[in-house]
Every structure is written in structure tokens, then in C-alpha cells.
Amino acid sequence: MAADPRSVLRRLPPDAVQFQVILGSLLGDARLVGLPGERRMRIVHRADRHDYVWWKYDRLATFAADPPAQRAGALRFETVAHPIFDDVARLFRGGGGMGHARRDAVAKLLRPLGLAVWLADVGRLELRPGEFLPEQRELALAS
Hints:
Blueprint lengths: L15 H12 L3 E3 L6 E7 L3 H11 L8 E3 L2 E5 L4 H7 L13 H7 L2 H10 L12 H8 L2
């Protein structure tokens, strides 16, 4: 029996940008779904946030199961199962709910880009896909 081609993705580590999008999303509206060893991230936003969802997808496409799809007035996509999601689950208290982060642990990992994603998720900041320049990307990931 042939292996699922998506299983190869489990061996690819996220880069610095992808990690910050993952962390910021989980601090915001994203959720981890699945049991340990099979966890994946689900991203769901209102359909009017189309550009923002595609911005996230463009950064996480390597780990996405399928492109964003509209359902019940929302645009959503999920990642494939990946060990990174078991790792980040330890940063949060409680099962699937991401609302209770261990602040000491998260603060050490969060960079400006992750903070911007978090704030964009909760509606306090607007990330415009076409306005994030390469120089800004470098600055956003600086310690």
C-alpha cells in the first residue's frame, strides 16, 4: 500500500514566518483539532476577510490540506497533521481551546509578525497582503 503523500509534509519544519503565522493564529481565532499525534490547525474567518485568509494560506500552503473554501458564510482551511501542532499545544492550557496561553512560554517565542497576526485575528489590526514588503518581513522577525 502506498503512503499518503501528505505524510511527507510532517517532516518539513515550518520556517520562521510560518511559525509566527501559526503562533499568532492560535492566539487569535485558529484552533487545533485532532488527537495528539494527529493534530492539525483549523483557520476560519468571515467570508469578508477573504484577502486575509488567502494571505495566511499563501504563507502556510506547504502545510495546508486544501485551499480555503467557503462554507456557511465563512472561509476556512485546515493544515495537514504535523508534529509542530503537538509542540505548540503545550504552550496553551486546556484541551483544544487556545484562549489560555502560558504567557511566559509564548512571550519567548512571539515576534512582531506573530503579534500582528494575533491582533489581525481579533480585529484590532488590518494586515493587507500587498503591503507587507520584504524589508518589513525581516524586521518583523527580529528578536
